[in-house]
Each structure stands twice: as C-alpha cells, then as structure tokens.
C-alpha cells in the first residue's frame, strides 16, 4: 500500500556505500547511524549453500580473488561465488568496487582500497547485527533483501528464493508488521514467493532502466507485489529545452494502482542526465513526485534534505 503523504523511507543502498565499501558491516553500521529506515542486502549463494551479501555473481570487482585463487575462473575470466565454499571466500579481502581489467576504482573519491580491507558478510550475520543494533539503540531499522539472479542460481542447482524465505522465516521476518521488504527483478520468482508466503511479506518488483513500462505491466505487478523499485531513468527522462524536467507517467500510474514506489539509485557522485544538483533531484522525487522511499548511497544527505527541504 502506498505511503503517500508520509516521509519517504530512506533505504541504504548496499549500506552507506558512498562512504565505505558496499555491503561491509561497517557500511551498514554507518548507514544505520546516519538514519536509514532500511538496510539493503543483495543475496547470492556460495558453493556450500551459504547466503552471502554481495551484489555480483562473481567476486572479481570487489575482492582480490584473482590473486588469491589463480586458475579458478570460468571461461569468461570471472571467479563466481557459487564456485567457492564460504570458508574460501572468507579469506578474501574486499574493498571499493574496481574494474578488474584496469584496477581503476568506479568511484575514485570514495573509500579507496588502499585505506583498508573488509570481509564478506553472510545473511545470518547481517540479520543478527541489525537486530543487535535495534536492541541496543531502541530503534527499529528494517531489512531489504534482494534475491539476485534466481534463475541463474537454479541453473547451478540452488533454489535461492527458497533459502532466502527460510532464513527470513527463521528470523521472524514473516510475522505481521515485520520491517522487511523483499525485492527481485524476476517477476515469476516474486509470484511464487507471494503464493508461498501469502500477503504478510511486502514484495517489491524491481524494474531496470531498459524495462518498457505501461499501465498494463503495472496492473499485472499489482496482482502480486506491494510496490515497484524502478530505475530513476524510467521516471526522469532528462531536461527539456525550456529547463524543466521531462518525466514519464510511471509514478502517476503506480500511485493510481496503490503501488509503493521506491526508485534507485540516488548518488551525489553519479547524477542522472539532466540533473546537476543533488538537492534538486531529491526535491523532484520527494516533494514533487512524493515517492514512498528511495535507495541511496548517501543516507545522511537524504536525511538532511528531509529535515529541511527548503535548503
């Protein structure tokens, strides 16, 4: 159900990834302290079936796997998480995202790899960590897991969705009013999750920037999902010659269907075409479009804007 009229949810995209390496516990702790309402978890599986918090199916872009495990890549040159046991992955050093071919960091002004390394985090570890922070601070910050590439995992013999749902159930996240959203790009996976869990689990259908979105698609999504997580590019098309934003009708259609809208990703160092000011971008989505939540690498900047939208 849309939360239109309330402050939008601040969803920490891979934690406070604008300041610390994505999906590290340090990034999650910082995002928590900066005021996030939800912390995101991208979930993939290791060879021995452990659920890990990593964005990519492969380990190359965020770790030193190629150096530590030479000869273990697939034909495409990548070292896939599913080909390693969790104990092997725990030996790796993780850091800021780089281009494996060049070693150049994707966001050069962020936490450089030279400043220190981090370790992989399992879904169970992160859940315990967040629940511990909730207990010690008195806050109630939610989790926002994504089932990554479920069909690819199925081809490797892993039912990733089932493992994720079992973990959520074991940790109390299938109880009414639990602070959780489950997201995925794969619609069929989400339909099956809805059938197996019933209405208690809030589901978000992710939409890539290449998705063709119309009222028919959104009506179909509304049959099994509580909302959508669209790329910013599906909403903000650019800047018109008169200086005004060119917008799609996605938000108005979704709102008419009572779908929550959680667009991604709001980054001060990677603004969309047609936008040169982060506050202006937030004003458009929060004040004008009234989205229900947003994914951001910079929790503090969004929280600061929401406390004083006029600045």
Can you offer a commentary on this structure?
- This protein has 311 residues and is α/β, with parallel strands linked by helices.
- It has a single domain, classed as Phosphatidylinositol (PI) phosphodiesterase (TIM Barrel, Alpha-Beta Barrel), CATH 3.20.20.190.
- It is 31% helix and 15% strand.
- α1 packs parallel to α4.
- The longest helix has 15 residues.
Rounded to the nearest angstrom, the distance between the terminal CA atoms is 30 Å
CATH topology: TIM Barrel
**In percent, how much strand structure appears in the residues?**
5-15%
- Superfamily (CATH H level) name: Phosphatidylinositol (PI) phosphodiesterase
Mean pLDDT: 96
Q: Please state the second-level CATH architecture.
A: Alpha-Beta Barrel
Structural class: alpha/beta
* Percent of residues in helices: 25-40%
* CATH class term: Alpha Beta
Give the number of helices. 11
**Biggest beta sheet summary:** 5 strands, mixed
Q: What's the short story on this structure?
A:
The protein is an alpha/beta fold and 311 residues long. The chain has helices spanning 25-34, 65-68, 86-89, 123-137, 150-155, 160-170, 187-197, 215-222, 250-256, 278-288, 299-307, and strands at 9-12, 38-45, 51-53, 142-147, 182-184, 203-207, 227-230, 236-239, 245-247, 260-261, 293-296.
């Amino acid at each position: 159900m849309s939360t239109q009229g309330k402050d939008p949810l601040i969803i920490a995209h891979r934690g406070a990834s604008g300041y610390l390496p994505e999906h590290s516990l340090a990034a999650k702790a910082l995002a928590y302290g900066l005021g996030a309402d939800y912390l995101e978890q991208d979930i993939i599986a290791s060879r021995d079936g452990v659920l890990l918090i990593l964005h990519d199916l492969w380990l190359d872009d965020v770790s030193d796997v190629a150096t530590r495990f030479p000869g273990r890549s697939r034909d495409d040159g990548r070292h896939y998480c599913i080909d390693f046991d969790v104990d092997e992955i725990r030996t790796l050093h993780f850091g800021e995202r780089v281009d494996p071919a060049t070693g150049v960091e994707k966001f050069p002004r962020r936490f450089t790899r030279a400043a220190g390394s981090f370790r992989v985090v399992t879904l169970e570890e992160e859940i315990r960590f967040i629940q511990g922070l909730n207990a010690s601070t008195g806050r109630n910050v939610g989790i926002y897991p994504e089932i990554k590439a479920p069909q690819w995992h199925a081809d490797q013999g892993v039912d990733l969705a089932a493992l994720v749902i079992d973990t959520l159930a074991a940790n109390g996240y299938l109880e009414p009013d639990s602070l959780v959203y489950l997201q995925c790009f794969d619609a069929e996976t989400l339909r099956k999750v809805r059938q197996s869990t019933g209405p208690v689990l809030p589901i978000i259908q992710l939409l890539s920037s290449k998705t063709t979105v119309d009222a028919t698609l959104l009506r179909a999504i509304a049959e099994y999902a509580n909302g959508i997580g669209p790329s910013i590019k599906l909403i903000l098309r650019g800047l018109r010659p008169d200086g005004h934003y060119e917008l799609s009708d996605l938000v108005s259609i979704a709102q008419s269907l009572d779908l929550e809208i959680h667009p991604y990703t709001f980054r001060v160092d990677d603004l969309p075409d047609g936008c040169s000011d982060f506050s202006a971008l937030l004003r458009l989505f929060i004040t004008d479009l009234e989205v229900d939540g947003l994914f951001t690498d910079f929790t503090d900047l969004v929280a600061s804007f929401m406390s004083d939208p006029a600045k």
